[in-house]
Amino acid sequence: MSEALISRAQARVETGSLDDALADVRSAYELAVEARDGELVSNAATWGESNVLDDLGRTHEELRALHRGLDDLRQLGVPRRGHAWLAALAAGHHLEHGDARECRDLLREALGSPTDGGLGSIQLRLTAALLAVRQGRTDEAVDHLTRAEKLVTANDTYRGLNFGITRVEVALAGRDPRGAYHVALGVLRGILDHRWERLPFLAARATGDLLQHARDRSNNRQVRHWLDALDDLERARSALPAPSDDFANASPGTMAAAFALYDAELARCRGDAQTAYAWRRAVDLCASVSQRWDEAYARWRLAEALVADPASKGRVRRRVTTSAGARVELGAEPWLREIDALAAMARIRLDDVRAETPMRRLPAPIDLLTPRNTRYSHTCGRVERMRRSPRSWSSATRP
Question: pTM of the predicted model, to two decimals?
Answer without folding.
Answer: 0.79
